[in-house]
């Protein structure tokens, strides 16, 4: 694959949806910075995708729940490559599946917020200067229908609240960055058969779930911003 000159970072990309997003972006010609908390796992995934696609895939250790780790990653990326065209905030956790909102585990809620909300938000802000250096910057926040207020139900309050907060950040940043050619959107990949979804009977192929994220990551300059999408279709907030 001939590289298209664009640089993409995907967080939490050593497995599941993140890995498939990284693979699809690499296959489309992006140089991909593949991040994971475990440096060895990031390296193994990057090597496999590079071998399959012929693209440049660079592993990077990053724990989005650790502000110091984010700062180290931002410093590294500022040195090389010095710009970023795509940021996919994919890293996420489910810490309170099935827990009732009326009987919450506040420690679990805090843990979900640290990764799913604060982690994605901090990483975006830390890399904002690099995104501004790109000519067609795209930010995709991997959310969930469970975080859409229009679809909100009971149970799993930590996961739901963290994803709802992430959707709010999508709206805030998309509004503030609209005149800087940076498109910011949320994506719901659907009920995908990953390690997380598979334990609950999810059947949707990982490739299909990732495709909607990659669509947002490769939008044209006149594409939507500030939206919430599943498989390329708007989802009510």
Properties at a glance:
237 residues; Rossmann fold; eight-stranded mixed beta sheet; 8 strands; 44% helix
Provide an overview of this structure.
This protein is α/β, with parallel strands linked by helices. The chain has one domain (7-234): 3-Layer(aba) Sandwich (Rossmann fold). It is built from eight helices and eight strands, in the order βαβαβαβααβαβααββ. Strands 3-2-1-4-5-6-7-8 form an eight-stranded mixed beta sheet, sandwiched between helices. Helix 2 (39-53) links the parallel strand 2 (31-36) and strand 3. Helix 1 (16-27) packs across helix 8 and helix 4 (106-126) runs parallel beside helix 6 (157-177). It is globular. The chain starts with 6 loop residues before the first strand and ends with a strand. 49% of the residues are buried.
Specify the CATH class: Alpha Beta
Number of helical runs? 8
Helix content: 40-55%
CATH third-level topology: Rossmann fold
Topology as H/E string? EHEHEHEHHEHEHHEE
Got a strand count? 8
- Class derived from helix and strand content: alpha/beta
Radius of gyration: 16 Å
Q: Could you tell me the strand content as a percent range?
A: 5-15%
Integer tally of domains: 1
How does the major sheet shape up? 8 strands, mixed
Layout: helices, strands, pairs:
Blueprint: E1 7-10, H1 16-27, E2 31-36, H2 39-53, E3 57-61, H3 67-79, E4 86-89, H4 106-126, H5 128-133, E5 138-142, H6 157-177, E6 183-187, H7 195-198, H8 206-217, E7 228-230, E8 233-234
Parallel strand pairs: 1-2, 1-4, 2-3, 4-5, 5-6, 6-7
Antiparallel strand pairs: 7-8
Helix pairs in contact: 1-2, 1-8, 3-4, 4-6
């Amino acid at each position: 694959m001939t590289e298209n000159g664009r640089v993409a970072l995907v967080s939490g990309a050593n497995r599941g949806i993140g890995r498939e997003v990284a693979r699809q972006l690499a296959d489309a010609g992006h140089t991909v910075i593949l991040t994971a908390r475990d440096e060895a796992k990031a390296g193994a995934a990057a090597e496999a995708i590079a071998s399959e696609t012929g693209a440049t895939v660079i592993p990077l250790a990053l724990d989005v729940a650790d502000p110091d780790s984010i700062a180290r990653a931002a410093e590294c990326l500022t040195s090389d490559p010095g710009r970023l065209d795509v940021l996919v905030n994919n890293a996420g956790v489910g810490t309170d599946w099935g827990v009732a909102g009326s009987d919450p585990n506040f420690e679990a809620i805090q843990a979900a917020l640290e990764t799913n909300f604060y982690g994605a938000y901090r990483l975006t802000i830390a890399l904002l200067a690099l995104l501004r250096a790109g000519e067609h910057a795209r930010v995709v926040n991997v959310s969930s229908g469970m975080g859409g207020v229009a679809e909100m139900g009971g149970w799993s309050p930590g996961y739901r609240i963290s994803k709802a907060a992430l959707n709010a950040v999508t709206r805030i940043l998309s509004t503030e960055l609209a005149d800087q050619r940076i498109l910011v959107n949320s994506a719901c990949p659907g009920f995908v058969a990953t390690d997380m979804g598979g334990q609950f009977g999810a059947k949707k192929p990982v490739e299909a779930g990732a495709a909607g994220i990659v669509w947002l990551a490769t939008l044209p300059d006149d594409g939507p911003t500030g939206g919430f999408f599943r498989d390329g279709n708007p989802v009510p907030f």
